[in-house]
Amino acid sequence: MNNQKLVVIGGDAAGMSAASKVRRAQPEREIVVFEQGNHTSYSACGMPYYIGGLVESEDELIARKPEVFRQKQNMDVRIRHEVMEIDVQNKRVRVRNLDEGNEFWETWDDLLIATGASPIAPKMEGINADGVFTLSLLQSGIDVFDFIEKAKPAKAVVVGGGYIGIEMAEAFIERSIEVSLIDMAPQMMTTLDPDMADLILDYMKEQQVAVFLEEKLVKIETKADGSVKSVTTDKQSLPADIVILGMGVKPNSELAAKAGIKLGANDAIGVNKRLETSAPHVWAAGDCAESFHLVTQKQVHIALGTVANKHGLAAGINISGGNTEFPGVLGTAITKFKEMEISRTGLSEKEAKALKMDYQAETITSVSPSGYYPGAEKITVKLVVDKQSKRLIGGQIVGFKGSAKRIDTIATAITAGLTAQQVVDLDLAYAPPFSTVWDPVQMAARQLV
Amino acid sequence: MNNQKLVVIGGDAAGMSAASKVRRAQPEREIVVFEQGNHTSYSACGMPYYIGGLVESEDELIARKPEVFRQKQNMDVRIRHEVMEIDVQNKRVRVRNLDEGNEFWETWDDLLIATGASPIAPKMEGINADGVFTLSLLQSGIDVFDFIEKAKPAKAVVVGGGYIGIEMAEAFIERSIEVSLIDMAPQMMTTLDPDMADLILDYMKEQQVAVFLEEKLVKIETKADGSVKSVTTDKQSLPADIVILGMGVKPNSELAAKAGIKLGANDAIGVNKRLETSAPHVWAAGDCAESFHLVTQKQVHIALGTVANKHGLAAGINISGGNTEFPGVLGTAITKFKEMEISRTGLSEKEAKALKMDYQAETITSVSPSGYYPGAEKITVKLVVDKQSKRLIGGQIVGFKGSAKRIDTIATAITAGLTAQQVVDLDLAYAPPFSTVWDPVQMAARQLV
User: Fold this and answer.
1) Do A179 and A172 meet the contact criterion of CB atoms below 8 Å apart?
2) Which of A72, A333, B229, B289 is at 20 to 30 A from A311, Cα to Cα?
3) CA-based nearest distance B113→chain A, Å
4) In this protein, which residues make up the domain named FAD/NAD(P)-binding (chains A, B) (predicted)?
């Protein structure tokens, strides 16, 4: 097995985690990585902060460059190489060298598909106008940054009120650009419940973001020079010098589908817990692949850096002859908008309701740190439990400094199958600069007991 | 039972939590609380921040005043009343009214002892000098504050490098008072391992605290007017205008012992998991009582506000006819010194070694938040596991902003019996402003796998 060739499609989190794990386990194995973009192992999640001017250089977002993989880890990493076709039968991929335009076939003994996910950009008038961006590859972040430097936009419109949407709204504020945000949903952050999302909405409005919910993007109007002029919704027209589309992502699973590999949840590549696809010796990991959800016990598609890294690690172990299972996800996520911190894990109330689960939800508002300590601000914690067993199945936090990372306590409790009472019983850390004596998470749990 | 009288000795966290719980369960029951000090339900943990000038008024440290308990909760709360004797046989206590000097007997059907703990102050020359303080009752914190306002001390000596010691060192710095700290131990913070404590030592020195370890307090020299002049150790003499003794605490269990009630760990009042003492209808809760340790499965004495509140809640449930057990402790604690955050839970490596456990410990140093995000600073996480099962038994964190509350994840994992691999597998929250993609806690766990 040590002499068998591993080909990896995609050189970011999942692909390079897996390749690195294989390299450590099998120092002599041949490893070839094809990455269509210019960069490897970069922090896509860092792009809004780079655009906002908080990160000095795009280089800081790159954990490891292609030449380092080549020189230090003896991997044949080729950027600007796009895989056009997977031939499962003959165990080979057809690759295009994007710079030279030529194509060639590369054989493999194991193939890892780590093609990521792509931002959803509806086909409509003006969508390709100069100044309209999605965020995907690191290059897209650099492009936005460069555009701001050059064009000095005064007004931005962000389409979509999810993670990218609020992070980019913050970035624009950092750059002194006036921001409007539209979303067709009746709430911000649809991964949270409406009551929690409303707290974010209020704060964003307070911070001078013009938020328009239940408004659908209809078209983008352009100036004579082809640059964006305004965003037209079903209700109004918003002037815009720059537009960010943060309308969600779809897994890059077309290559796999065309090769006859089975797709799963949300058309992500179907995998078992070992990250094996339906084709022999073909693995998939990261944003292009589905994941097992620990609460619903079903496959879901969750495109997050944490998941991609864990996928990559598990795939790498299995590809190099080990045997491990991907542990599953809770969809734990965290972000911030200016001073407001936001996090969620497990099932929201509306997800539990949609799944017709017998659940109970409680929300508390307290303060963090201790009320008398400087900087104490409101924190709201919502917990969802299975009504019968009282086991935690989800949690959401909206608060300020030091609030949202508490979601980890909830995620750990859900994973371990703890009940609300067991959360109340936890010996959590207290000191006035950090918390109230009953941590807000425990206050919420007490409401459920 | 509703008409039976409950007498509570001690009006702080444990006593008033219990009394409040009983009141909610039994609206008509007679409840009498004797508190020797001037205040009820105050945050002893907040005193260093009050002294440091971060809290506007001592009133902010008080969660609920005696008159509120009297008026809103119909409790007979009497401050400045000291219980002198417990008569278990005749179910009564002898009480002294400290203002009027008279004594009387009060009968009870249930008695809750919540007398707290007292700072250790060795009997030695000068220990009662003007300007030498311990922190116990809220009044002691007010006294220190008032002394600083009046005497304007230029130099402080803190005896003891534990929580009180480092928090008071910070308070003095906030007040622009030069601080020296002495401890007879070879390390700061003996609840942590020496390697972790050294990080704190280095930082404190950097922040201009003169720290002297392995130095024993010998005597305190006084001026002609009876105020403190200097602190003499076995190695040197340190000039001092104010001295804080933070040399640990001992449980206030003498009353109980004299009444024939069994003492337990560290001479704390012995209790079962229901918080019952060896005497019928006599309960104990808070800093005066022992607690069940979840890892060692033995009784220990841990004087912390979180434990006192949980003790009080459990005792209140049981006293009012319910049936619950105190869930046990891990000794989870957190504090900070200036920008450095410090936390611990479960067993330290040296505790595991002392218990002759077969353990494994690993320490990692990473950054938090993401390395490229503004404000990223070092974080060090140490985890201890049982070597055979790889189950977590302890953790320690030393880092900067947003670091130390991660101890809650570790405490939750220990309580749930998770292994290092299960911690690696947790779906914890990541975004650049909060964390690296593998949380530092998981990085430490990966070292153990």
Assistant:
1) yes
2) A72
3) 21
4) 5-307
Mean local confidence (pLDDT), B54-67: 93
Q: Are B228 and B240 in contact (CB under 8 A)?
A: yes
What residue spans of B175-304 are helical by DSSP H? 194-206, 254-258
Cβ-proximal residues to B333 (8 Å cutoff; 6+ apart), any chain? A429, A431, B163, B191, B304, B343, B344, B345
Q: Strand ranges (DSSP E) for B217-285?
A: 217-222, 228-233, 237-239, 242-245, 249-251, 282-284
Percent helix, percent strand, percent coil in chain A, to nearest 5:
30, 30, 40
- Residue A374 at interface with chain B, using a CB cutoff of 8 Å: yes
With vertex at residue B283, the alpha carbon angle to CA B281 and CA B289, rounded to the nearest 5 degrees, is 155
DSSP helix/strand/coil, B319 = helix
| Contact (CB, 8 A) for A190 and A162 | yes
Contact indicator for A11, A33 with CB cutoff of 8 Å = yes
- CA B63 to chain centroid, in Å, comes to 17
Fold of A6-41+60-117+250-319: FAD/NAD(P)-binding domain (3.50.50)
For helices A163-174 and A194-206, angle between their N-to-C axes, nearest 10 degrees: 10
d(CA A434, CA A418): 24
Q: What distances in angstroms separate CA A46 from CA A43, A150, B198, B388, B436, one per listed residue?
A: 5, 21, 33, 39, 11
Q: Tell me, what amino acid is at B332?
A: T
CATH architecture of A333-448: 3-Layer(bba) Sandwich (3.50)
pLDDT of residue B325: 95
Which residue type sits at A44? A
CATH 3.30.470.20 fits B6-40+61-118+250-319, yes or no: no
The answer for A311, left when phi > 0, alpha when psi is -120 to 50, beta otherwise, is alpha
Taking residues B295-317, what's their average pLDDT?
Answer: 97
The residues in A 384-423 lying below 8 A from B, measured between CB atoms, are 402, 404-409, 411-413, 415-418, 422
- Note the pLDDT tens digit of each residue in A181-221: 999 999 999 999 999 999 999 999 999 999 999 999 999 99
Closest to A176 (Cα-Cα) out of A147, A208, A132? A208
Q: Do B428 and A408 touch (CB under 8 A)?
A: yes
Residues 6+ positions from A34 with CB-CB distance below 8 Å: A7, A8, A9, A10, A11, A78, A81, A82, A83, A93, A95, A106
Residue A396 DSSP code: E
Contact (CB<8Å) B46/A433: no
- Kindly list the domain boundaries of chain B, sorted by start residue: 6-40+61-118+250-319, 121-247, 333-448
pLDDT at B2 (0 to 100): 54
Q: Does CATH number 3.50.50.60 belong to domain B121-247? A: yes
Omega within 30 of 0 (cis) for the link into B369: yes
Supply φ then ψ for residue A217, to 5 degrees.
-65, 125
Q: Using alpha carbons, select from B273, A151, A216 the residue that is nearest to residue A143.
A: A151
Instruction: Tell me which residue of A435, A422, A426, A326 sits closest to A379, measured CA to CA.
Output: A435
Which residues of chain A carry a pLDDT beneath 50? none
pLDDT band at B164 (very low <50, low <70, confident <90, very high): very high
> Are both A6-41+60-117+250-319 and A121-247 of the same fold?
yes
CB A432 within 8 A of CB A373: yes
> Which pLDDT value is given to residue A2?
54
Q: B45 catalytic, yes or no?
A: yes
What distance in Å separates the CA atoms of residue A75 and residue A69, rounded to the nearest whole number? 6
Q: Which residues of A touch B406 (CB under 8 A)?
A: 405, 408
Closest to B61 measured CA to CA, from B75, B85, B87, B42: B42
Exposure letters A365-395 (e unless 16+ CB within 10 A, then b)? ebbbbbbbbeebbebbbbbbbbeeebbbbbb
Share of chain B above pLDDT 90, in %: 99
Q: Residue B62 pLDDT > 70, yes or no?
A: yes
